[in-house]
Amino acid sequence: MSSARVAMVWIGGGALIAAALLNLLAVIGRHTGLPLKGAIELVQVAVLVAGALALVAATIARNHARVHLILDRLTGIRRDIAERTCTALSIVFYAGLLAGSCWLAFDLWNSQEVSELVGVPWRWMRAFLNASLVVVIVLLVRQLAERPRS
Length: 150
Prior knowledge:
Blueprint: H1 3-32, H2 39-60, H3 68-71, H4 76-108, H5 122-145
Helix pairs in contact: 1-2, 2-5, 4-5
């Protein structure tokens, strides 16, 4: 596994552990009278990082959700056509997500939009998500351009 993939797994895994610990501390704090202010905002950041990196990792490993009930019964050229169609539709789907997210990012970039309690700058979170979506789309386009496996 390349060092970039290892780093991606550690960062994404660390973000999930951070989200779990923040939730644990928030629950304990609520029951002890010492609430953790901004826990929800910080968990949102951790989940965004983990989710975006998981999308990239799933794309690299070719492990996106598929309808195996149908794909596993196909062989040869039919399977190749079905897999290429699935990849092409995935590109369209992620391009739609990217278009909508970019629209929001451009519209709100100069609005100084931050979270209420701890001041998380949402513009950078949107930029991270958009960069991740671009990587996913590029990887899918590369996979679509590859020769079919015989």
